[in-house]
Protein backbone atom coordinates (compact mmCIF):
# COMPACT_ATOMS: atom_id res chain seq x y z
CA UNK A 1 0.00 0.00 0.00
CA UNK A 2 1.45 3.37 -1.02
CA UNK A 3 1.51 5.50 2.14
CA UNK A 4 -0.29 8.42 0.50
CA UNK A 5 -2.57 6.57 -1.90
CA UNK A 6 -6.30 7.30 -1.70
CA UNK A 7 -8.02 4.08 -0.74
CA UNK A 8 -11.52 3.25 -1.87
CA UNK A 9 -14.34 3.03 0.62
CA UNK A 10 -16.78 0.27 1.45
CA UNK A 11 -17.31 0.30 5.23
CA UNK A 12 -18.97 3.72 4.95
CA UNK A 13 -21.37 2.38 2.35
CA UNK A 14 -22.42 -0.72 4.23
CA UNK A 15 -26.11 -1.46 4.25
CA UNK A 16 -28.25 -0.56 7.22
CA UNK A 17 -28.30 2.38 9.55
CA UNK A 18 -25.51 4.89 9.92
CA UNK A 19 -23.48 3.96 13.09
CA UNK A 20 -25.02 5.00 16.38
CA UNK A 21 -28.62 5.00 15.20
CA UNK A 22 -28.52 7.36 12.22
CA UNK A 23 -30.70 6.97 9.14
CA UNK A 24 -30.37 4.20 6.56
CA UNK A 25 -27.79 5.08 3.93
CA UNK A 26 -28.89 5.71 0.36
CA UNK A 27 -27.59 2.69 -1.63
CA UNK A 28 -24.33 3.32 -3.50
CA UNK A 29 -22.98 0.45 -5.60
CA UNK A 30 -19.24 0.22 -6.40
CA UNK A 31 -19.65 1.77 -9.84
CA UNK A 32 -21.62 4.75 -8.43
CA UNK A 33 -19.00 5.83 -5.89
CA UNK A 34 -17.06 8.38 -8.02
CA UNK A 35 -18.70 11.79 -8.29
CA UNK A 36 -17.70 11.76 -11.96
CA UNK A 37 -20.23 8.96 -12.60
CA UNK A 38 -23.81 10.19 -13.06
CA UNK A 39 -26.25 8.88 -10.47
CA UNK A 40 -29.66 10.37 -11.32
CA UNK A 41 -31.93 10.27 -8.29
CA UNK A 42 -29.07 10.09 -5.75
CA UNK A 43 -30.70 11.60 -2.65
CA UNK A 44 -28.79 10.77 0.56
CA UNK A 45 -30.45 11.69 3.86
CA UNK A 46 -28.81 14.53 5.78
CA UNK A 47 -27.68 13.50 9.22
CA UNK A 48 -25.58 15.12 11.94
CA UNK A 49 -25.65 13.42 15.34
CA UNK A 50 -26.98 15.44 18.30
CA UNK A 51 -23.73 14.97 20.19
CA UNK A 52 -21.91 16.66 17.31
CA UNK A 53 -24.40 19.54 17.19
CA UNK A 54 -24.10 20.02 20.96
CA UNK A 55 -20.30 19.82 21.31
CA UNK A 56 -18.41 23.10 21.54
CA UNK A 57 -15.48 21.32 19.82
CA UNK A 58 -17.58 20.88 16.66
CA UNK A 59 -17.68 23.12 13.61
CA UNK A 60 -20.57 25.55 13.20
CA UNK A 61 -23.45 24.42 11.04
CA UNK A 62 -22.33 25.21 7.50
CA UNK A 63 -25.71 26.60 6.49
CA UNK A 64 -25.89 29.09 9.39
CA UNK A 65 -23.33 31.20 7.51
CA UNK A 66 -21.79 32.22 10.89
CA UNK A 67 -18.39 30.78 10.02
CA UNK A 68 -16.54 31.35 6.80
CA UNK A 69 -14.79 27.98 6.35
CA UNK A 70 -11.46 27.96 4.52
CA UNK A 71 -11.38 24.49 3.01
CA UNK A 72 -8.17 23.00 1.58
CA UNK A 73 -6.22 25.37 3.89
CA UNK A 74 -5.13 25.69 7.49
CA UNK A 75 -8.19 27.52 8.82
CA UNK A 76 -7.09 29.30 12.00
CA UNK A 77 -6.12 26.33 14.22
CA UNK A 78 -7.85 23.66 12.15
CA UNK A 79 -6.02 21.92 9.32
CA UNK A 80 -8.63 21.49 6.59
CA UNK A 81 -6.15 20.21 4.02
CA UNK A 82 -6.39 16.62 2.84
CA UNK A 83 -3.57 14.12 2.47
CA UNK A 84 -5.29 13.19 -0.80
CA UNK A 85 -4.77 16.62 -2.39
CA UNK A 86 -7.39 19.30 -3.08
CA UNK A 87 -10.94 18.07 -2.60
CA UNK A 88 -13.95 19.63 -4.33
CA UNK A 89 -16.09 22.22 -2.56
CA UNK A 90 -19.54 22.60 -4.11
CA UNK A 91 -21.70 25.56 -3.09
CA UNK A 92 -19.47 26.04 -0.04
CA UNK A 93 -19.78 22.38 1.05
CA UNK A 94 -16.73 20.03 0.97
CA UNK A 95 -17.15 16.79 -0.99
CA UNK A 96 -15.68 13.43 0.03
CA UNK A 97 -12.54 12.88 -2.12
CA UNK A 98 -13.34 9.20 -2.68
CA UNK A 99 -16.98 9.75 -3.60
CA UNK A 100 -20.52 8.96 -2.48
CA UNK A 101 -21.32 7.37 0.89
CA UNK A 102 -25.13 7.47 0.97
CA UNK A 103 -25.29 10.05 3.81
CA UNK A 104 -24.94 13.85 3.64
CA UNK A 105 -23.80 16.37 6.33
CA UNK A 106 -21.45 15.35 9.17
CA UNK A 107 -22.88 12.21 10.76
CA UNK A 108 -20.86 11.57 13.93
CA UNK A 109 -17.83 13.58 12.78
CA UNK A 110 -17.24 17.02 14.25
CA UNK A 111 -15.68 18.72 11.28
CA UNK A 112 -16.80 19.43 7.75
CA UNK A 113 -14.29 17.98 5.29
CA UNK A 114 -11.28 16.07 6.62
CA UNK A 115 -11.29 15.03 10.29
CA UNK A 116 -7.63 14.41 11.04
CA UNK A 117 -6.68 11.55 13.34
CA UNK A 118 -3.49 9.78 14.47
CA UNK A 119 -2.93 6.07 15.20
CA UNK A 120 -0.10 4.67 17.35
CA UNK A 121 0.82 1.08 16.40
CA UNK A 122 3.00 -0.28 19.23
CA UNK A 123 4.47 -3.68 18.30
CA UNK A 124 6.69 -6.42 19.77
CA UNK A 125 7.52 -10.00 18.75
CA UNK A 126 5.31 -12.71 20.20
CA UNK A 127 7.44 -14.95 22.44
CA UNK A 128 6.79 -18.35 23.96
CA UNK A 129 7.44 -19.23 27.60
CA UNK A 130 11.07 -20.04 26.69
CA UNK A 131 11.54 -16.48 25.36
CA UNK A 132 11.87 -17.68 21.74
CA UNK A 133 9.95 -15.88 18.98
CA UNK A 134 6.76 -17.65 17.97
CA UNK A 135 6.84 -18.60 14.27
CA UNK A 136 3.85 -19.24 11.98
CA UNK A 137 4.16 -20.37 8.37
CA UNK A 138 7.90 -19.75 8.62
CA UNK A 139 7.60 -16.15 9.80
CA UNK A 140 7.77 -14.62 13.30
CA UNK A 141 4.48 -13.39 14.73
CA UNK A 142 4.09 -9.74 15.70
CA UNK A 143 1.77 -8.44 18.41
CA UNK A 144 0.36 -4.92 18.78
CA UNK A 145 -1.33 -3.04 21.58
CA UNK A 146 -5.01 -3.13 20.66
CA UNK A 147 -8.09 -1.54 22.18
CA UNK A 148 -11.74 -2.56 22.09
CA UNK A 149 -13.72 0.56 21.13
CA UNK A 150 -16.54 1.50 23.45
CA UNK A 151 -18.76 2.85 20.67
CA UNK A 152 -18.97 -0.30 18.51
CA UNK A 153 -17.02 -3.07 20.30
CA UNK A 154 -14.56 -3.40 17.42
CA UNK A 155 -10.86 -4.05 17.92
CA UNK A 156 -8.73 -1.08 16.86
CA UNK A 157 -5.41 0.71 17.14
CA UNK A 158 -5.28 3.27 19.97
CA UNK A 159 -5.82 6.58 18.20
CA UNK A 160 -8.00 9.63 18.01
CA UNK A 161 -8.76 12.97 16.51
CA UNK A 162 -6.27 15.82 16.30
CA UNK A 163 -7.55 18.69 18.46
CA UNK A 164 -7.49 22.29 17.18
CA UNK A 165 -3.96 23.68 17.41
CA UNK A 166 -2.44 20.28 18.27
CA UNK A 167 0.49 18.72 16.36
CA UNK A 168 -0.26 15.22 15.04
CA UNK A 169 2.80 13.94 16.95
CA UNK A 170 1.17 15.21 20.18
CA UNK A 171 -2.12 13.51 19.30
CA UNK A 172 -0.33 10.17 18.91
CA UNK A 173 1.14 10.33 22.41
CA UNK A 174 -1.97 11.79 24.05
CA UNK A 175 -4.37 9.26 22.55
CA UNK A 176 -2.10 6.32 23.36
CA UNK A 177 -1.82 7.59 26.95
CA UNK A 178 -5.57 8.11 27.28
CA UNK A 179 -6.75 4.86 25.70
CA UNK A 180 -4.02 2.33 26.53
CA UNK A 181 -2.67 3.72 29.81
CA UNK A 182 -5.78 5.47 31.16
CA UNK A 183 -3.88 8.71 31.65
CA UNK A 184 -7.08 10.71 32.17
CA UNK A 185 -7.88 8.78 35.35
CA UNK A 186 -4.64 9.43 37.23
CA UNK A 187 -3.17 12.39 39.13
CA UNK A 188 -1.44 15.13 37.15
CA UNK A 189 1.94 13.90 38.47
CA UNK A 190 1.24 10.37 37.22
CA UNK A 191 0.05 11.80 33.91
CA UNK A 192 3.36 13.62 33.47
CA UNK A 193 5.25 10.39 34.20
CA UNK A 194 3.18 8.53 31.60
CA UNK A 195 3.82 11.30 29.09
CA UNK A 196 7.59 11.16 29.68
CA UNK A 197 7.64 7.36 29.34
CA UNK A 198 5.58 7.36 26.14
CA UNK A 199 7.66 10.19 24.69
CA UNK A 200 10.85 8.21 25.33
CA UNK A 201 9.51 4.95 23.93
CA UNK A 202 7.87 6.61 20.96
CA UNK A 203 10.88 8.73 20.04
CA UNK A 204 11.51 6.68 16.89
CA UNK A 205 8.63 5.51 14.77
CA UNK A 206 8.07 4.44 11.18
CA UNK A 207 5.34 5.98 9.10
CA UNK A 208 2.95 3.29 7.94
CA UNK A 209 0.22 5.33 6.34
CA UNK A 210 -1.10 8.82 5.85
CA UNK A 211 -4.34 9.37 4.03
CA UNK A 212 -8.05 8.70 3.80
CA UNK A 213 -9.54 6.10 6.16
CA UNK A 214 -12.47 3.83 5.26
CA UNK A 215 -14.21 4.79 8.49
CA UNK A 216 -17.85 3.70 8.88
CA UNK A 217 -18.68 7.24 10.06
CA UNK A 218 -17.65 8.93 6.80
CA UNK A 219 -20.24 10.91 4.90
CA UNK A 220 -20.40 12.79 1.61
CA UNK A 221 -19.21 15.94 3.40
CA UNK A 222 -17.08 14.74 6.34
CA UNK A 223 -14.48 11.99 6.48
CA UNK A 224 -11.51 10.79 8.52
CA UNK A 225 -7.88 10.84 7.51
CA UNK A 226 -5.04 9.55 9.62
CA UNK A 227 -1.33 9.36 10.17
CA UNK A 228 -0.40 5.87 11.42
CA UNK A 229 3.03 5.37 12.98
CA UNK A 230 4.61 2.07 14.07
CA UNK A 231 6.68 2.07 17.26
CA UNK A 232 8.42 -1.28 17.37
CA UNK A 233 10.11 -2.73 20.46
CA UNK A 234 12.46 -5.36 19.03
CA UNK A 235 13.54 -6.81 22.37
CA UNK A 236 10.15 -6.49 24.07
CA UNK A 237 11.88 -5.02 27.12
CA UNK A 238 10.89 -1.38 26.63
CA UNK A 239 7.13 -2.01 26.62
CA UNK A 240 7.41 -4.00 29.83
CA UNK A 241 7.58 -0.60 31.57
CA UNK A 242 3.92 -0.04 30.60
CA UNK A 243 1.00 -1.17 32.68
CA UNK A 244 -1.79 -1.38 30.17
CA UNK A 245 -5.10 0.00 31.43
CA UNK A 246 -8.03 0.93 29.21
CA UNK A 247 -9.33 4.48 29.48
CA UNK A 248 -11.35 7.17 27.68
CA UNK A 249 -12.96 5.68 24.50
CA UNK A 250 -11.42 2.21 25.07
CA UNK A 251 -13.34 -0.51 26.88
CA UNK A 252 -10.35 -2.90 26.93
CA UNK A 253 -6.67 -2.89 26.06
CA UNK A 254 -4.58 -5.97 25.25
CA UNK A 255 -1.73 -7.39 23.14
CA UNK A 256 -3.20 -8.91 19.96
CA UNK A 257 -1.46 -11.21 17.45
CA UNK A 258 -1.14 -9.65 13.99
CA UNK A 259 -2.38 -11.78 11.09
CA UNK A 260 -4.94 -11.90 8.30
CA UNK A 261 -7.42 -13.47 10.76
CA UNK A 262 -7.77 -10.12 12.54
CA UNK A 263 -10.74 -8.02 11.57
CA UNK A 264 -10.12 -4.49 12.73
CA UNK A 265 -12.07 -1.22 12.80
CA UNK A 266 -12.05 1.03 9.69
CA UNK A 267 -8.84 0.59 7.60
CA UNK A 268 -6.76 -0.65 10.54
CA UNK A 269 -6.28 -4.17 9.09
CA UNK A 270 -4.59 -2.62 6.04
CA UNK A 271 -2.15 -0.79 8.32
CA UNK A 272 -1.34 -4.08 10.10
CA UNK A 273 -0.62 -5.82 6.83
CA UNK A 274 1.87 -3.06 5.97
CA UNK A 275 3.52 -3.31 9.42
CA UNK A 276 3.90 -7.09 9.01
CA UNK A 277 5.35 -6.57 5.53
CA UNK A 278 8.04 -4.10 6.60
CA UNK A 279 9.00 -6.16 9.66
CA UNK A 280 9.08 -9.47 7.72
CA UNK A 281 6.41 -10.90 10.02
CA UNK A 282 3.60 -13.41 9.53
CA UNK A 283 0.38 -11.96 8.19
C1 LIG B 1 -10.22 6.21 12.52
O1 LIG B 1 -10.91 6.80 13.60
C2 LIG B 1 -8.78 6.60 12.71
O2 LIG B 1 -7.93 5.66 12.11
C3 LIG B 1 -8.65 6.65 14.22
O3 LIG B 1 -8.26 5.40 14.73
C4 LIG B 1 -10.06 6.91 14.73
C5 LIG B 1 -10.25 8.26 15.40
O4 LIG B 1 -11.58 8.40 15.85
P1 LIG B 1 -11.97 8.26 17.39
O5 LIG B 1 -11.23 7.05 17.93
O6 LIG B 1 -11.48 9.50 18.07
O7 LIG B 1 -13.44 8.08 17.42
O8 LIG B 1 -10.73 6.64 11.33
| N-end to C-end Cα span | 14 Å
Largest sheet entry: 7 strands, mixed
Judged by helices, strands and strand pairing, the structural class is alpha+beta
- Count of helix runs: 4
Overall CATH class of the domain at 116-279? Alpha Beta
The secondary-structure element order is EHEEEEEEEEEEEHHEEEH
CATH homologous superfamily title of the domain at 116-279 = Nucleoside Triphosphate Pyrophosphohydrolase
Number of strands: 15
Mean pLDDT level: 91
What overall geometry do the principal axes of the alpha carbons give? Answer: globular
Computed Rg: 20 Å
Could you walk me through the main structural features you see in this protein, from its secondary elements to its overall organization?
This protein has a domain at 116-279: Nucleoside Triphosphate Pyrophosphohydrolase (Alpha-Beta Complex). Strand 8 and strand 9 form a beta hairpin. Helix 2 (168-180) crosses helix 3. Mean pLDDT is 91; it is low at 1-6. The strands form 5 sheets. Strands 7, 10, 11, 12, 13, 14 and 15 form a 7-stranded mixed β-sheet that branches. It is 16% helix and 25% strand. It is α+β, with helices and mostly antiparallel strands and 283 residues long. The chain binds 5-O-phosphono-beta-D-ribofuranose. Residues 117, 119, 156-157, 159-161, 213, 215, 224, 226, 249, 266 line the site of 5-O-phosphono-beta-D-ribofuranose (RP5).
Amino acid sequence: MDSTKVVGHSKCRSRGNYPGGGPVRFPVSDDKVPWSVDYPGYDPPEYTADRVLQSDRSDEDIKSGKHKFRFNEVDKKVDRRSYTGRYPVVNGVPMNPVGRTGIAARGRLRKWGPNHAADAIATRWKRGSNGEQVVKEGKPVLQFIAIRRQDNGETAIPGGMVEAGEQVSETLLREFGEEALSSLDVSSDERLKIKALVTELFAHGDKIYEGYVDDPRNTDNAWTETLAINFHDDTGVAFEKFTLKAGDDAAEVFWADIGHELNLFASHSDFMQKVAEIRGAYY
